[in-house]
Amino acid sequence: MKRIYALERWCIDCRRCEVACRAFHSKSCDAVRAYRVEGDDPKNRIWVEGARTVSLALNCRHCADPACVQGCISGAMQKSQATGVVTVDPQRCVGCRTCASLCPFGAVRIEEVTGREIAIKCDLCGERLGEAGEPHCVAVCPNRALVYVESEGGSHE
């Protein structure tokens, strides 16, 4: 399956991936409204971590054998057998943080959404890819520090 990988040497900490993700997951699908009108919701599902010298986007690798799915006590974390995409059912998530503690990439965050804490992670844009056939975060990256490539496992080979 195709996965998103971050190339640290090309990331310039512009955070355009975060903005594109948040806008895409907002009710309006508009960046300005997502930040100025819709408030704390929606949440972006990719995060740039780093310091002034090094930065790197963190996102779900949709692992072949995801620890987050295995450890989810409520069954909210699920992996589609058809697509390989790991998703979170917000209605079932109890915010226990098990998935976040088990993720080897730090790609699952617990955030407050509509008054309760739930797991948030990349959903590959719900398979609604952008015009170029890639997730929106990848499409907007000015340096191509995010790549969307075919991969067998959960780490970039």
UniProtKB/TrEMBL annotation:
GO molecular function annotation: 4 iron, 4 sulfur cluster binding; metal ion binding
Record bears the keyword Iron: yes
Annotated keywords: 4Fe-4S, Iron, Iron-sulfur, Metal-binding
PROSITE patterns: 4FE4S_FER_1, 4FE4S_FER_2
Domain 4Fe-4S ferredoxin-type: 84-113
Keyword 4Fe-4S: yes
Taxonomy, superkingdom: Bacteria
Protein name, entry field: 4Fe-4S dicluster domain-containing protein
Organism: Candidatus Aveggerthella stercoripullorum
Lineage: Bacteria, Bacillati, Actinomycetota, Coriobacteriia, Eggerthellales
